[in-house]
Amino acid sequence: MDETARDIIAALRLGTVPAVGLSQLAAGRGRELAELDEQLDYVAQGKSCIKFVCGDFGSGKSFFCELVLERAYERNFAASEVVVSPDVPLSKLAVVIGKTFAAVRLPEKRTACALSDLLEKWLQNLLRKVAALEGLKLSDAKSFAQLNKLALVKVEEELSAVHGLDATFANVVKVYLQARVRRDSVLASDALGWLKGASNLPAARKHQLGVKGELSPLAARNFINGLLHLLRNSGYAGLVWVIDEVETVQRLPNVHQRENSYKSLRELVDQVAKADFPGLMLLVTGTPRLFEDARYGIPSYEPLQHRIEEMKSPSGQRALSQPLLRLSGFDFDRLLEVGKKAREIHGRAFSWRPDERLCDGDVKRLAEMAVNGFGGHVERTPRRFLKETVHFCDVLLEHPTLTAEEYLADEATLGARLSSPGSRYTVPMDSTPSSA
Questions:
Q1: How far, in Å, CA of 61 to CA of 285, rounded?
Q2: In what order do the strands lie in the sheet with 48-54?
Q3: Where are the beta strands (DSSP E) in 12-146?
Q4: Closest CA to 11 of 336, 387, 391
Q5: Which one, of 150, 161, 156, lies nearest residue 172 by Cα?
Q6: Cα dist. 103→63, 80, 81, 176, 324 in Å?
Q7: Is 1 exposed, middle or buried (0-12, 13-18, 19+ CB in 10 A)?
Q8: Which uninterrupted H or E stretch holds 231?
């Protein structure tokens, strides 16, 4: 039994993006992924890069970014994803950075916050360094107090050398180390909470952490440098940081909020350009309107627009290496390919041959129903179509006498299930739709 295949099928049954094995479902993104692979290799050398990923709703931006993260994990990168929203406004970068720390994932821990794991690993490495330098043994209880005292000094030395890092970062990491030594779980939790952006700590508890007031935007941005230092000195290649759904900024009613949001991005772009973030790949996602709307989108803020504006050749070709990476639309051929891949994965998950009972023509017929159910919009159908494809395979596996023709015969039921809310199912198309 293939456990990864089982995990993929379990996610598709729920209509969600699988947490593992995404490359097994990928279709038609070879050139874009090759570009990001090259950038990951570049960043792993202590460099930094930024990509603005442009794609319409349903074009697969989220899937693409998750696929990049999967490939990053394979190269020993950590990752963090933040979704811009009214609660996480891009104009308040300290909030965004806090959420970034709260969302840190490691290759060995991809489904929950791994910040405490990272700190523990970094501190253990630090203790080993100090022990080696001072000729002390980690296992010697008599030298334990001296070792921890020296480690606190080493924490300050290492973090004070990080370019532009606010002193409060080192203070909080030191407090976390002291709390772990004293087995003070409350203080250790406060330290982690503050790094994750907790704003509701009482003044007395903030005082224990050695912090006060709010972080300036510059100090907040440079916290990313602190995170990168922890990662690189714990043996990781760096960080892939995804800032998702930036198109949310366009809906802000206040022009100053929009400008401050775009200013935050511009400042991040400039720090990447100056190599202030060694080991960072930053992916910023948005819809075409974000990159094209002169009134509410990025073009309304010229300093950012000038840095990332899309370049084309006289005949319209784009270079994938430029800052703006535009994802092409999802077409019918791609949809069909993904459906066949889901069928094949189902076979590996449950050790059977679904292609012997669900032929390519049946998969195509189901795909046509799905596209019709979404009014011909191929790019909106993948999630519902894949869920139905998995159900098709499940039913055939559990009911050996059922045929694909019998399953597909009830077009009314299938059509209703494959339709978007409010749409009306029509007769399956006679011909394959043209590519989007």
A1: 7
A2: 77-83, 238-244, 280-286, 48-54, 324-326
A3: 48-54, 77-83
A4: 387
A5: 156
A6: 18, 5, 6, 19, 25
A7: exposed
A8: helix 217-232
* Cα angle: 326, vertex 329, 333; to 5 degrees: 135
pLDDT tens sequence across 155-205: 888 898 898 888 899 999 999 988 988 889 999 999 999 999 887 888 888
Q: How many residues does the chain have?
A: 436
Is the Cβ–Cβ distance between 401 and 435 less than 8 Å? no
| Angle, helices 332-350/382-398, rounded to nearest 10 degrees | 30
Q: What does the pLDDT look like over 377-402, one tens digit per residue?
A: 887 788 889 999 999 999 999 999 99
In whole angstroms, what is the distance from residue 99 CA to residue 188 CA? 18
Q: Taking the domain 30-107+236-326, which CATH number applies?
A: 3.40.50
pLDDT for the residue 390: 97
Buried residues in 241-259 as b, exposed as e (16+ CB within 10 A): bbbbbbbbbbebeeeeebb
Residues of the chain with CATH 3.40.50: 30-107+236-326
Token pair for 371: 């596209």
User: Rounded to whole angstroms, how far apart are CA atoms 302 and 263?
Assistant: 10
